[in-house]
């Protein structure tokens, strides 16, 4: 059937089965899937702290709302060739690589974060979604841009403004190892949050291999 819609897998699954998400953060909540908000007013996703404008899961008490895709985010991600584990956390004292704050909130809703097991690497789900959208608007996710190393560096710098993206000749091996670690961290978190919808996004992180 021909149509003009592209859906996250989780959104389509919700439409078909009306199954609630399984999130350890909301064990006592009874979620229902809705094609549109059954209540008046703006609804904010409890996981990413961003506005919900389409399909949503809503607690029967009406006090918790989730994007269908956010509801199905991986709770843990394992860094390759390492014992490091990235966890989706509700509370963290770590500082986000993007906004340089510990908390990312919208009104009374505080979003969740992906945090490395040592607490050194952290990214708010909301910050990553907004940063990737900003990179797309700037054209960094176009084929021509990702073929250009300078565009890749600008895109990575936009994702983590205070990190050193471009390796220098005088940079120590530990510093280079640290840079590759946080770039790998970003790649895994981007894949988890966006579902890696574009193979172009993967090309952005190839700079870590150079």
TrEMBL record:
Q: Which Pfam families match?
A: C1_2
Under SUPFAM superfamilies, the record lists:
Cysteine-rich domain (SSF57889)
Q: Where is the DC1 domain?
A: 33-71
Please give the superkingdom of this protein's source: Eukaryota
**InterPro entries according to UniProt:** C1-like_sf, DC1
Enumerate the transmembrane spans: 185-208
- UniProt KW Mitochondrion keyword: no
Q: Does the keyword Cell cycle apply?
A: no
Q: Which UniProt keywords apply?
A: Membrane, Repeat, Transmembrane, Transmembrane helix
Question: What name goes with this protein?
Answer: DC1 domain-containing protein
